[in-house]
Structure formats: C-alpha cells, structure tokens
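Reminder to self: tokens first, then the designed residues, so the page reads top to bottom the way the pipeline ran.
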C-alpha cells in the first residue's frame, strides 16, 4: 500500500498514520520519502 492508495480511497492521513503503518508492516519505508515530497 502506498500514498496513492490512501488518496484513491479518500483516507485522511498524517505522519502518525504513516508511522503506525510502517511499524505494523502495512507500508514500505519508501512511503516516508513520498510523504516528505508531498509536504514540500
């Protein structure tokens, strides 16, 4: 799952969602860079 999947499903997210997703192995660590680029 990646940020595009969350956007397509209209799920709101923030850094806490991403952190828990990585810890629970829902997301790959590459999602951090995708989120950082989105913030810029």
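Designed residues (40 positions):
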């Amino acid at each position: 799952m990646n940020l595009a999947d969350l956007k397509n499903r209209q799920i709101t997210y923030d850094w806490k969602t991403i952190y828990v997703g990585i810890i629970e192995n829902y997301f790959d660590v590459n999602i951090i860079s995708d989120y950082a680029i989105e913030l810029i």
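The chain has a mean pLDDT of 92.
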